[in-house]
Amino acid sequence: IEHSRLGIPVIFHEECLHGLAAKNATSFPQPIGLGATFNPALVEALYAMAAEEARTRGAHQALTPVVAVARDARWGRVEETFGEDPYLNTQLGSAAVRGFQGDRTFKDKKHVLATLKHFAAHGQPESGQNCGPANVSERVLRETFLHPFRDCIRQAGAVSVMASYNEID
Fold it and tell me: For residue 88, which of 138, 43, 119, 25 has the smallest C-alpha distance?
């Protein structure tokens, strides 16, 4: 910060979809498997462990949880989601955010920023193709796909959101 023109800190990020994606890191079940447990306490504990591993290696931000609602089984990223239900994704997504971010002060050096992915309607691409357009009505968009993002921000205090790669409608 002291040597940058704008005073912006460097933020290192890591993929932590099912644990830190790094050599000798702990690998947990894919989120779709965690979704089958419907156990927020378990999800929070697992992602707290992943956060600590990531932070120990110098990361500040995790590129997860995926709270996109999987609505097309042909989509090649279904395993990254907690499932097809917005309520389930909200509950487990919020638990993951709490696990990653802790009390959000980050002073303990054991937590990282959580990044909600992928905003929005990424889970119902045309023909199941990744990055395909999502042809959904505004009502479906609001009630199904935006719900987990809104609530994970409101309930768990997620501080980062990653855009999806698709066009909507």
Answer: 43
